[in-house]
Amino acid sequence: MVVAMAAQVRINPRALTPTTASSAHTTTASSLPFLLTNQRCDTNKTRPWNLRAIVAGFSSSGSLNQTVGGQLSQTSTHRIEPSESERNKRKKKRVFFLDVNPLCYNGSTPSLHFFAHWISLFFSQVSLTDPVIAVVKIEEHEADDVVATLVDEVLQGGYRVVIASPDKDFKQLISEDVQIVMPILEFNRWSFYTLKHYIAQYNCYPSADLSLRCIMGDEVDGVPGIQHLAPGFGRKTALKLLKKHGSLENLLNAASVRTVGKQYAQDALTKYADYLRRNYEVLSLRRDVDVNLQEEWLSERETCNDLAILSNFFKMLEETQKLNHRNRSHSSNG
């Protein structure tokens, strides 16, 4: 898949139209604010909506796959190296990463209304004028790996990072300078999740999150833990050992040369070390995706035309959705 990751990407109105979504999932766009614009304010006319992002559209199966506009730079390994003064200047500025794909679905159903609602709340109440980089997957790499790679680049530039996503995998990236903001359906709002929240919830640091999931397993990702191999090895034991050793690799290395816990835990760690390392490979986010941060993605956004731009954009999406529905009906009747 070729994707767009360029400043000023022109949006195709078909790009985010869920062609399999029910006709009930339509949107009244006139009241929705939208802040995906990096253009200078013009009160006399509405300019084309431009997005600094990786952008994709729905396939007939409802999954995001086809991208529009721009070209992804995947060849250069050059990274932005700001001066010390630039680092100090940027230190308190935030850069948002928006995980687009989960917002396009209400449960398992593609929904334009759901997408419009949460995007509207995000830009009007959360990111405001801070730069936003929207992501979907690129060829051979999932969106979370792309985000993890770019997060490292942004942090090297002296920024703070906020990842907007309901995906729990991003918790392994949380630090003093990396937060998560999640859509909370029952409260109809986005909610920030920080390092303090993580420690209060799990009584350990995020560095142990991935290691804990490797031991306990992850049903959503289809990764079994070792309970079926070592029934006595539960969450309490795993947390205790990880708090002491810090990470799965440290724990496995220690267990290979000395006793680290009770006999059942020692036996499990030595006997199933390779099994646990394979889990780590599956669950860990990659940070070596060949994508490169562009300086223009980090500029403050202009927002004064957002309401008009969103209204026109969603009007086009609705018209395209209706046209697709009529075409499908005509094809089935033919």
From TrEMBL:
Keywords: Exonuclease, Hydrolase, Nuclease. Residues 66-88 are annotated as: Disordered. Residues 66-77 have a biased composition (Polar residues). The keyword Nuclease applies. Transmembrane segments: none annotated. Gene3D superfamilies: 5' to 3' exonuclease, C-terminal subdomain, 5'-nuclease. One of its GO terms (biological process) is DNA replication, Okazaki fragment processing. One of its GO terms (molecular function) is DNA binding. The keyword Nuclease applies. Residues 78-87 have a biased composition (Basic and acidic residues). Residues 93-301 form the 5'-3' exonuclease domain. PANTHER family: 5'-3' EXONUCLEASE FAMILY PROTEIN, FLAP ENDONUCLEASE XNI. This is 5'-3' exonuclease family protein. It comes from Actinidia rufa.
